[in-house]
Predict the structure of Ribose-5-phosphate isomerase A.
Amino acid sequence: MDARALKIEAARAALAHVEDGMRLGIGTGSTAEEFVRLLAARMREGLSIIGVPTSERTAAFCRELGVPLTTLEETPELDLTVDGADEFDPELSLVKGGGGALLREKIVAAASRRMIVIADESKAVQTLGRFPLPIEVNPFGLKATELAVRRAAEALGLAGPVTLRMTKDAPFVTDGGHFILDASFGRIPDPRALSSSLHSVPGVVEHGLFLGLAQMAVVAGAGGARTILAQH
Ligand SMILES: O=C(CO)[C@H](O)[C@H](O)COP(=O)(O)O
């Protein structure tokens, strides 16, 4: 199976958990887009849902395919969010934000009763940290925030390059108007400690550690899709 087929396989397995009338959080990224394609096809056959997109990119894609959308203002509680991940560990702690949508993704996941992660086996790790951790920051005081992030990490024994995410020749700007620092700290043995440490840095808007949010992952590999349930 090629990479796209694996994404479709995971998305299809997650779609089996979508029920008529659900209020759905809809993730961002190439795997989430496969889910949107399948969802739209199922809706043409009669399934009725309403979705909250986790990014402008996902919103545009949903509109293109006719998936009806609402907002968290109108619909502040959701039944289920289906989203991709950049990596996940056996407890279903995640790193997200490779697509730059981590802030809305986290708000939407937290507003949902359940979150299902869709991924292929390449995203599975024993310990988080192989994928650089995206940290969304306010553009004001960027250098000072970056320094404080490095110091917060160092206090936990973590170090490594922290780079400003760029598009061509300008900083990447999130849907919320913020910048992203990609922190290559390597193995993160205590994600909870790093999470609270980063949250204590003024200027850090959010980070890509998703802890205790996902209840299930459907992970596609050569032998089909397997389901992982979180213990929390
Ligand atoms: O966190 C994300 C976007 O902010 C995505 O879920 C993550 O990057 C995975 O994307 P893909 O399915 O394209 O590998």
Remarks:
- Residues 30-44 form the longest helix (15 residues).
- Helices lie at 3-15, 30-44, 56-65, 102-110, 142-154, 191-199.
- The chain has two domains: 3-124+211-229, 133-206.
- The mean pLDDT is 97.
